[in-house]
Amino acid sequence: MTRKAGFAPVVDANTQLLILGSLPGDASLKAGQYYGHPRNAFWRLIGDVVGRDLAALPYEDRLTALKAAGVGLWDVIASAERPGSLDAAIRSPEAADLRGLVAELPKLRAVAFNGGKAARLGRAVLAGATGVTLIDLPSSSPAHARPLAEKAAAWAVLARWVG
């Protein structure tokens, strides 16, 4: 089985909130973009948090807008074996260097986990990280069948950490 690898982190020195997924799905890997599946609600959810329609912007502009709001992106898994895109199918995961990244972000105040798999793996690595609030979010994935309004209500808590 082929290993799938994630993307580089999208952060800068002003990152206050870091959102961590598990590992990009096939549509995202093919597009070369975080949350590239057209049915993934991530860009709508985080757009509501930062007060901009990010889903309507070209990808690079989305990333620029996130950075301007103090929001960074990465994944808890650097690479893994996985047929398809479901988190449940992930095998032999190699952890991303979350502690290393967190140590490089001087303004970081919170880390949010996009989905249960990201939360389980990320919390295990970041347990005891001082001064950083850890937040579990419902997954933005279309495979996580909850109404968008319910997801948006849970994601709204992130506004507190947006610059």
What does this protein look like?
This protein has 6 helices and 7 strands, in the order ββαααβββαβαβα. The chain has helices at 26-31, 42-50, 59-68, 98-103, 116-126, 148-155, and strands spanning 3-5, 17-21, 71-75, 77-81, 91-95, 110-114, 133-137. The strands form 2 sheets. A 4-stranded parallel beta sheet has the order 3-2-6-7, sandwiched between helices. The protein has a 3-stranded antiparallel beta sheet with strand order 1-4-5, with no helix packed on it. Helix 2 crosses helix 6 (148-155). The longest helix is centred in the C-terminal third of the chain and has 11 residues, at 116-126. The radius of gyration is 14 Å and the shape is globular. The N and C termini lie far apart (42 Å).
Describe the secondary-structure layout.
Layout: E1 3-5, E2 17-21, H1 26-31, H2 42-50, H3 59-68, E3 71-75, E4 77-81, E5 91-95, H4 98-103, E6 110-114, H5 116-126, E7 133-137, H6 148-155
Parallel strand pairs: 2-3, 2-6, 6-7
Antiparallel strand pairs: 1-4, 4-5
Helix pairs in contact: 2-6
Strand content: 15-25%
Residue runs with pLDDT of under 50 for 5 or more positions: none
In N-to-C order, the SSE pattern is: EEHHHEEEHEHEH
Computed CA radius of gyration, to the nearest angstrom: 14 Å
Overall pLDDT: 94
Share of helix, binned: 25-40%
Overview features:
163 residues, alpha/beta, four-stranded parallel β-sheet, globular
Give the gist of this structure.
The chain has 163 residues and is α/β, with parallel strands linked by helices.
